[in-house]
Amino acid sequence: MRATPENLAELCKEKKTETTKYFAKLRKKTPKKLDLTMQELHDDEFEKFDCLTCANCCKTTSPIFTNKDISRISKHFRMKEINFISTYLEKDEDDFMILKQAPCTFLDESDNTCTIYDVRPKACSEYPHTNRKKFIQLTNLTLKNTEICPAVYNIIEKLKKNVPL
């Protein structure tokens, strides 16, 4: 069954233990072409999945804001960086700069678009990270993202079928 924003929580609950075990085996026995496989699965899924129908990532989590992100976005708003930080950001327990609130301040909830899309943080432009090189290093993050993004859930379920362990 394909995940949707409506059924994601239930599907994740059913598959969490299985997926956790799968990733543990995958880390021990990583296929040589895993990154290529992930790129293909990612591309295939995002031909079908429209993020604007969901935006759960923007509604529930915060990206990490790098110094470059802060500089670029504050320039976009014609704000001093210190004012941008004090208005929108805070440090998390790992000392990363993240948004003070969820949903994202820059999410237009009427249509799930991003009001700063052209200058959005790098973490947002790379999300959900399923097409990144050295994917094997991102399995813990990906496991968390299966609970946030239906597309990630669908990609990982296909990975389990295409690369059985």
Outline the fold blueprint.
Blueprint: H1 8-28, H2 34-48, H3 56-60, H4 67-76, H5 81-88, E1 89-91, E2 97-99, E3 107-108, E4 113-114, H6 122-126, H7 139-145, H8 150-162
Antiparallel strand pairs: 1-2, 3-4
Helix pairs in contact: 1-8, 2-8, 4-5
Pfam family, one: CxxCxxCC
Organism: Aureibaculum flavum
InterPro entries: Puta_zinc/iron-chelating_dom (IPR005358)
Features:
two-stranded antiparallel sheet, single chain, 6% strand, 8 helices, 165 residues, mainly alpha
How helical, in percent, are the residues? 40-55%
Task: Determine the structural class based on helices, strands and strand pairing.
Answer: mainly alpha
Oligomer: single chain
Query: Taking strands numbered 1, 2, ... along the chain, how are they ordered across the largest sheet?
Result: 1-2
* N-to-C SSE string, H for helix and E for strand: HHHHHEEEEHHH
Please indicate the percent range of residues in DSSP E strands (runs of 2 or more): 5-15%
Rg over CA atoms = 17 Å
Spatial separation of the terminal alpha carbons = 21 Å
Number of contiguous helices:
8
The residue-averaged pLDDT reads 96
Q: Care to count the β-strands?
A: 4
Shape: globular
Low-confidence stretches: none
Main sheet?
A: 2 strands, antiparallel
InterPro entries: Puta_zinc/iron-chelating_dom (IPR005358)
Protein name: YkgJ family cysteine cluster protein
Organism: Aureibaculum flavum
